Amino acid sequence: MQNALDATALMLAKEAAGLTAGELQTRGSSYFLAQFARPEVKNAQVTVLANTDSTTLTLNGSALMDTAVAQIIGVKTITISGTATATWGARSRLRVALALDNTGSMSQSGKMPALQTAAKNLIARLKSAAVTNGDVYV
Question: Which terminus, N or C, of the chain has the lesser number of Cβ atoms within 10 Å?
């Protein structure tokens, strides 16, 4: 069960950013039940909880299983359960400081224009990688 929960959490984390809570639950149940198809288990189910920060999923799975030896003392079934958590798109902000050489030696052989172009390209690339405004600060 734990392997199925972990795999389901990872699969959902790949696509969770664009899904509603209902869609997460539907897909989570589908993924989980496809992986945890055990004939000796009854009533297998999973609950998908998306945290309010929208970057963490928690899956709680449970199922009933018939007992063999414990039936002697009247315990016919036991509940098995597990939990998995997945986090994606960690919102760590990137802070970049550039130390650019502007001494006299940079005026030779087109070094200063090359430095300016490289710095602008770096900033453009960092800006395009940012998901929301303020993720990258230069």
Answer: C
**DSSP per-residue letters across 38-60:** -TTEEEEEEEEEE-TTSSEEEEE
Candidates 29, 18, 54, 42; CA nearest to 9 is 29
What is residue 77's three-state secondary structure? strand
The pLDDT of residue 53:
59
Q: Which residue is it, tokens 């802070």?
A: 95
pTM of the model: 0.61
Taking each helix axis as running N to C, give the angle between helix 21-35 and helix 2-15, from 0 to 180 degrees, rounded to the nearest 10: 140
**Contact assessment for residue 137 and residue 97, using Cβ atoms and an 8 Å cutoff:** no
pLDDT score of 116: 93
pLDDT digits (tens, 9 = 90+) for 60-73: 999 999 888 888 89
Nearest to 67 by CA among 36, 45, 42: 42
d(CA 74, CA 84): 31
Instruction: Give the residue ranges of DSSP H helices in 16-138.
Output: 21-35, 111-129
Alpha carbon distances (Å) from 6 to 49, 54, 91:
14, 18, 22
